[in-house]
Amino acid sequence: MRVLITGVAGLYGVHLVEELLSHEEVDMIYGVDDFSRGFPGEADFLYSKAWGPRFQLIKSKFQDLTVKKINSLNADVVVHLAGYNSAEESMNTPDEYFQNNEYGTFRFLQRLLRTQNQPYLICLSTVEVYGDHLYNPVDIDHPTRPKSVYAVTKLNMENYCLAQARRYQYPVSIIRSTSIYGENQNLCGYLAVVAAFIERACKGEPLIIYGTGGQSRDFLYVKDAVRAIYLMMTQKDTYLNKTVHLASGQLTAIKDLALLVKAVSGSESEIIHLPCEKNAIPGYALDIQELNATGWSPKFTLEQGLARTFI
Questions:
Q1: Which domains, ranges and CATH numbers included, belong to the chain?
Q2: What single DSSP character describes residue 148?
């Protein structure tokens, strides 16, 4: 199996490469990234020879890959992880999000369609496409009511993928992912809550909670996430043209997350509360039966995942 990964320098990408290298049936991995998002560990993870001859880095924007270049890689599977992923940032830089997430993916899809072997595409989206939930647990058929430019670009990306599948029988699967955390998480710019807490705990700065902290989120450790992606790669017929949730299935209150981060890190950071942010999306439980049915379930608890992240 030959695999092309976009956004390889990000949180998902680095761990997916490590997961794939643990399987002998994966012959070659091509990782694409332009390093525009300032991810940590760039040199350590991607420019060393630690991954051996089965990994090759392609420093480029994913949307700039030509049909000729993609054909030369002869990939069986493409895992499209690249994308800007902050709801808050997207409201301040909407054009950048449209150009990268939506139009960039549209261009990439058009080129994949013209390749010789049309590799199976697994495309990463987000549960933020749902907006405010109407019922719990949220299933795949729940109405999509995005509340940010980021979520809109991801939903439109999904629709481009599925339209190409319906019109041209292009093989594709969509993952709607919950909050993923772990080693190599981007600590620059707009941060998700786990990354923000980790950064502040390491610096001894206050952990900021907006509102009471009673609002809940589903957090999944990245090692569990990439195992699920590998499962989908190897069970193509099961997941073909489907959209699935990738989540732990467990909700954690933000105030409990803050206490857990302090306990795991040994930080003496103060926990402070600020007024609740406008347009915040309430936490909701996610239906993960689709992945559970094929043998996947998380191996790491939140405490175990955080402990590994701090090592």
A1: 2-184+219-249+282-304 (3.40.50.720)
A2: S
